[in-house]
Design goal:
252 residues; mainly beta; Double-stranded beta-helix; 7-stranded antiparallel sheet; 15 strands
């Protein structure tokens, strides 16, 4: 048995989001300051620059976490590497190298709690059911997910979509049911959500941070001709076509 004090009853810690076994705590103010950085800490808090942490509750369940993200764990919780032999390890190394994610993501399972390290980034909780159980992430967004979610590496449909669209050749693809936890420079309140039904959206630049795996991604001319596209100042645009959802950051 254990007791956890000064967390849920801490006046400086507020739960700002919760889905499934994941809760997002936000530090209202940075209390560990000195006279030299007190002004910076004050205005940071006023401008929503605050530390945030993900709190995971395990009830005989499991969670996959980005390598090095765990701050502490409490209770009957065990950690495993998720590596199933040399071949599997090499595969994970390659996947990590091409997606910008950690090669090996620890799996925490059992009964208890896991708290992740503080971050100044914004935390987004995605319910995979709302994405048809299939979502593709931009590089570096993954933080954690339920153990029921599978991770795959997907390649672009063509090389031009990566090179001309200023994107990587590969992305992390999550499939299955559960909650996925993302780290974003942009809060959910600012993200634009496109819901397509056999339609398309064209985006100038790599502003999409997550999209349904059912969508086809290509890079196309913004106009009917390459000359017209260049003259318009838009040139090439990223095109997402089909049925699904897209999360787009309105700012770089």
């Amino acid at each position: 048995m254990y007791q956890l004090n000064n967390l849920f009853d801490n006046k400086n810690m507020k739960v700002i989001a919760q889905k499934g076994n994941f809760q997002v705590f936000e530090h209202e103010r940075d209390l560990s300051v000195s006279p030299s950085n007190a002004v910076t800490a004050y205005f940071s808090s006023e401008m929503n620059v605050r530390k945030r942490q993900v709190f995971i509750t395990l009830n005989g369940t499991s969670a996959v976490v980005q390598s090095g993200a765990m701050q502490w764990m409490l209770g009957n919780v065990e950690m495993s590497s998720g590596v199933k032999g040399v071949g599997n390890f090499l595969g994970k190394m390659v996947s990590g190298a091409v997606t910008g994610e950690s090669a090996v993501k620890p799996i925490y399972s059992g009964y208890g709690n896991v708290m992740l390290e503080p971050t100044y980034k914004h935390i987004i909780l995605l319910d995979m059911a709302e994405w048809g159980g299939n979502v593709v992430l931009d590089d570096g967004l993954f933080l954690a997910c339920d153990g029921t979610i599978q991770q795959h590496v997907v390649a672009r449909s063509n090389v031009s979509s990566a090179v001309l669209g200023k994107e990587g050749l590969f992305n992390l693809n999550l499939t299955g049911n559960g909650i996925a936890v993302l780290e974003s420079f942009v809060p959910m309140e600012e993200l634009v959500v496109f819901e397509l039904n056999n339609d398309c959206v064209k985006i100038d630049g790599n502003m999409a941070i997550a999209w349904s795996g059912s969508l086809q991604f290509t890079v196309e001319k913004s106009g009917k001709s390459l000359l017209g596209s260049a003259a318009s100042g838009e040139g090439l645009v990223n095109v997402y076509r089909g049925t699904g959802k897209i999360l787009m950051a309105p700012t770089a």
